[in-house]
Amino acid sequence: MGFQESATPDPARRVFVSYIDKSREYYLAQGFGNPYRWAYNTEIPFTPLAKPLSESRIGVITTTSLWTGQDHLDLVDRPPKHAYAAPCDPLPARMFTMDLAWDKEATNTDDLGSFLPVTALKKLAAEGRIRDVSPRFYGVPTEYSQRKTNSQDAPAVLEYLREDGVDATLLVGL
Amino acid sequence: MSLTARHLEANGIPTVVLGSARDIVEQAGAPRFLFTDFPLGNPAGAPGNPAMQVEIARMALRLFETAETPGTTVRTPFRWPVDDWRMNFMHVDVAEREALLAAGEDRRRRQALRKEKFGDA
Fold first, then answer.
1. B90 and A22: CB-CB below 8 Å?
2. Domain coordinates of chain B in residue numbers?
3. Which residues span the domain enclosing A94?
4. Looking at the 3D structure of chain A, how many domains does it have?
5. Distance between B77 CA and the closest CA of chain A, angstroms
6. What is the ipTM score, two decimals?
7. Other C-beta atoms within 10 Å of A43: how many?
8. Is residue A29 part of a domain?
9. Cα torsion through B40, B44, B48, B51, rounded to 10
10. Is residue A32 part of a domain?
11. Among A33, A150, A169, B73, which has the minimal tally of Cβ within 10 Å of its Cβ?
12. Which residues pair with A133 in a beta bridge?
């Protein structure tokens, strides 16, 4: 496979991985003709906290899906994904992640806390750092359709957050 | 994920994106970004390391208070124990060109089948 033998990066190359470069070259090598065009924005919206964190309810948003009993689901059989909200208490034992392009050779997603920081936030709520964690966490699918994210999924999650009185959010992409 | 963050932010909800794909998140224009230089999959902390996960959540919250300008990135201090993933992930080896093309061909075939089944949704 041409794996790098050394444990240290090659300083003749950029150490930080460019996933835009990597995925473009990889899919071109797989014969996909049209490189994916990633979102590029120079204007950035910005909303400061309306109140101190100690008085704020925090919500967690994930790109993973609710587990439906299978770790492996063939691409052909995967139904289209939609935004969703699910209870934080109890948290699911696991999430479905195999459809996402995380590094399946280097790591795993068996520990929910490694990508869904609900338990960590609950601990910080117990310390008084935040008021509390939203009773639900939220899912936003990533299916490489920026149009669908902007027109359907992001507005749907905004509605869930408003229903739950969430003041600020952590969004965790795999 | 960054696009969702932007939508929420434009509608009055402050956000912090936690992630490991620095170039993608920064180019998309995420309002606040907590970067952990790990292989993709564990941007909230290494598996089985709840202390690190709390520390990363703590840094994410802190970013709500400290970020003064849109598009602020803060990097967590954590390092993955090895670096080989930087090279290995989505590695294109010319010696494997045929296998890569075959994998792509298979993926396109299955994508077409899925489209027949579910439409464009």
1. yes
2. 2-81, 91-121
3. 53-172
4. 1
5. 14
6. 0.92
7. 8
8. no
9. 150
10. no
11. A33
12. A58
